[in-house]
């Protein structure tokens, strides 16, 4: 299904990799858990997947890493597919203007998180999906294995345990929303599901392929429909306005594509109707986005003109 | 230059106008100044301008109205053209997550407004443009007359006086930013310029044409360059993430185009590389955007598929 | 030890009780747990204890009720006695200007609660006392039995369980502060201790006597020293500026005494060097203070002139 | 009227002055206007006035300095005397928990400042007094001359002009409240009155005498009544809970008296029924209160036991 043959995107990726190799300031890995703190900012991988599943890559594009918040895209898509617009009664779709783990906004808006990509919103979405399926992290894993064509995708239990050990802030968010009635299940169960999802290991190739349904207007790799065309548009819109923590405006301005980043150093991006991308490099800027990753995407849209703007 | 001949967009506009005629809940006009409070929510006009200046329209598409915050797009473009990236030291480009005239964010971020489309940001941009040109509102008027091909465009001095009489909140914003050194000129002069800009009268046809440079990647109607391709992309990105007050996420989700609204009931939108739109209807929703206007744009992108997502 | 003999305070109490009987708007009992929601706003009791333990009372002054946040005074005193000024590294002593269970302030001040009487602050104080003694609620109970001379004082396990079942907001506060390293023990243990303390049942007579050390400049009922003179002054100062939720200024203005209220309807107050008071009536105002209770204290200071101002 | 004879308070003042002379860290003068920035932190003066007008002093106790926010006490008293409880519809009496010139609180509470001693509140009180008298600063000056017995008290027009030149933050506050209808007169007039009041020059002796009405339960120096006993208590309560910026709790805890500080380095304090104090030293701590001034008051209450707690 995947190939590295010399076709249209390969020269672009090669050129970007050369440019990124010159990059001197590559940021700092996340340090709140040991598994991430050990990341090497000089590592770099990038993959582009076409609508038919053809994948191009460069650097460490087949090497698994900790996906972290990138999985929030897939959890959102699965919950939206299962629950439809009723989901939006529990989580908003506006940018937050606050740090990703802020409680202030929640307090002013009665426990309804501003969007599905801040931690509070992702907790709510996980709670909804768990309620729908009885197994949120299992549903996520099954979906990602199917879309990437990689049956070896798995959670990293050490990372999940490490997240849980540093999970007081997320526990606070969950209990706080529960106090407003916006969490349905027991908080400890929810946190376990949430931290498992964050711990998923996958490669740039895996994530570029798995994101394909957003470029195919809702169709999965096997041609079946996960989301309506309108819902796929909705997820892309939320990614563009809220996908990169408190730097969504800057990302839209520089990259101009729907995207979602994670503190493991990955960023996925969507060119609707054309292709999907995943780039990975563990060094982060002060807003939690991969320095080399955002730079590579910026170069990609500049070179190819494939921005939505 | 303009025509109403039966070409591609006319049937779409006619269909949308029919649908909008059925709309029962059309919102409420802004009521903070008499000129706006007199607006009739059943009024409706819509225009589409192609890259070459061909314009299609329906309803009151040639009738002038108070453009209000829609002019912030043009002021931003002129300031960015004149000052370049140095502009971004004085105003951010992130969504605010707060109401359009909030002072809270300013206090936490030392007088730097989050983006050019909240009132504080527009005051800063006007101050920069006034500093560059010595005549911010004159520059704006000249640009809009040239792009729209309408030499009769003018400010409404009654509206400007009315805005000034209700201008304590904007005066507070300007003095507050001045206390941080982020306003260079005298506050009373700045306010006069600002309120003049808000008072511009123009029609859907005028505004659709005047927005054309954003669909032409920075080129003006006469083919000369106002913005670099990258700067045009930047303005579109800021419109998409910040152009509709505290409903930017919702607008991206429903319409999926860069857009900017005003409390006079107008909304402009850009389909990069293809066309620009302006719709007008005075009834607003509770976040200050035209109810019929957003609905019409939503229908337009759904019918034509011309969303960026 | 106690007496109801006809001495100086009895006529004042009798007069106040008569006036309170005329009070028509008596507020509404707290309704977040069933045990409190069942309260009757027409119930009323008041007691005054002189420095030597002489007690005067009127109404239901010997009837036990749920003391709730009134116990925060005693927990603070015990923690301050045990830890000294080092306590103030973990909790501030400034009024909060926010609701008693707000998370906003915590976020802006890095997990250090503004004072010991908002819920977050009381959780920290309980955590410190539990760390010092290994049994925070046991220490509290022992102290209160000794000072009141009432060996039957006890926690109400139903109320404690009910509090725990509605405890998500407090769990959020505790986890949030733990994320800043400002909680030393396991959060579930802390919550159990905290909810037990809230559930203490005591009467006006019990609480007036137990508060006596604050009027005796730090000396316990048996003459031994709990707090230094300076520490007793500190606790009184914190009560005056922070003891009645978001109405401390209003309480100082009307009553003019250090005081502490609880949502069970009790309020204790201190006339340094002279006497202590406890009043109880379950109807609360919209800021959580007993309507009849504050009115009775207001009348007491007006009639006797025993305000600190 | 005043005397320096050897009576009860003189030895205490002498002892305090000796201790203060040893103080090494004396803070930093306010630097936002030149007149204050030139202050010398080693300057120190202190005065105590008894109820009958007997004054004791030490150090620079007769030297005039810029009174700044200390005048807010007198403006409040005059407005309360003129308008009665209706004043409290325009300004609250709760501690703010925010910096003295914050706009955040105003926004959440619809333009009603939390108390009369934050800048927003003092602007409102000045507006009310100006409305009542037609000459707010003239009323203030007349009152202070009468109470101090010093006909030479005057405003410093250079300081007032300097304040106005750095007055954008206060202009923002005034316009912001005007946008909520909580300022009745033209903002420029209000600002002129406000800055004049801040510029008053007076000595420790002058201010200790002028504050006497608060220790005399509302009676002026000539025995006439300015405030009811209840109103005097109200002003004292507001001073205790709100008089020292964001350090009111700390001041209550250390000093235990109603007090009001100014960035010129003065602090006045009241021992109800006994005496009033004024201390001055220009070095401020990071919350804007005189370091030597608060230390001296702390020593005074510790040595004399004259705290309200």
UniProtKB/TrEMBL annotation, chains A, B, C, D:
Q: How does it assemble?
A: Homotetramer.
Q: Does the keyword Hydrolase apply?
A: yes
Q: What catalytic activity is recorded?
A: L-glutamine + H2O = L-glutamate + NH4(+)
Which Gene Ontology MF annotations are present?
A: glutaminase activity
| Family from the record | Belongs to the glutaminase family.
InterPro entries, from UniProt? Beta-lactam/transpept-like, Glutaminase
Q: What is this protein's name?
A: Glutaminase
Keywords, in A-Z order: Acetylation, Hydrolase
Where do the annotations place substrate binding?
Answer: 69, 119, 163, 170, 194, 245, 263
- NCBIfam families with a match to the protein in the record: Gln_ase (TIGR03814), PRK00971.1-2 (NF002133)
E.C. number = 3.5.1.2
Its taxonomic path starts at:
Bacteria, Bacillati, Actinomycetota, Actinomycetes, Kitasatosporales
């Amino acid at each position: 299904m995947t190939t590295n043959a010399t076709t249209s995107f390969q020269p672009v990726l090669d050129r970007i990799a050369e440019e990124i190799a010159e990059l001197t300031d590559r940021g700092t890995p996340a340090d709140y858990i040991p598994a991430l703190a050990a990341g090497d900012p000089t590592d770099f991988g990038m993959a582009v997947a076409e609508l038919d599943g053809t994948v191009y890559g460069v650097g460490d594009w087949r090497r698994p890493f900790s996906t972290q918040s990138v999985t929030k895209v897939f959890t959102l898509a699965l919950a939206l597919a299962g629950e439809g617009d009723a989901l939006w009664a529990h989580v908003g779709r506006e940018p937050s203007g606050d740090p990703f783990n802020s409680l202030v906004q929640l307090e002013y808006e009665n426990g309804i998180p501003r969007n599905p990509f801040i931690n509070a919103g992702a907790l709510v979405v996980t709670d909804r999906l768990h309620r729908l399926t009885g197994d949120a992290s299992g549903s996520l894993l099954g979906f990602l294995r199917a879309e990437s064509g990689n049956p070896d995708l798995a959670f990293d239990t050490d990372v999940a345990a490490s997240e849980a050990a540093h999970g007081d802030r997320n526990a606070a968010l969950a209990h706080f929303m529960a106090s407003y009635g916006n969490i349905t299940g027991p908080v400890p169960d929810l946190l376990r599901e949430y931290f498992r999802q964050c711990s998923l290991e996958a490669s740039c190739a895996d994530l570029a392929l798995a994101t394909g349904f957003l470029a195919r207007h809702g169709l999965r790799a096997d041609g079946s429909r996960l989301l309506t065309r309108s819902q796929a548009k909705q997820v892309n819109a939320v990614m563009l306005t809220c996908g990169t923590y408190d730097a969504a405006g800057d990302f839209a301005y520089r990259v101009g594509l729907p995207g979602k980043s994670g503190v493991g150093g990955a960023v996925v991006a969507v060119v609707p109707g054309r292709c999907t991308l995943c780039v990975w490099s563990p060094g982060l800027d002060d807003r939690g986005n991969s320095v080399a990753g955002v730079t590579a995407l910026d170069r990609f849209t500049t070179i190819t003109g494939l921005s939505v703007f």
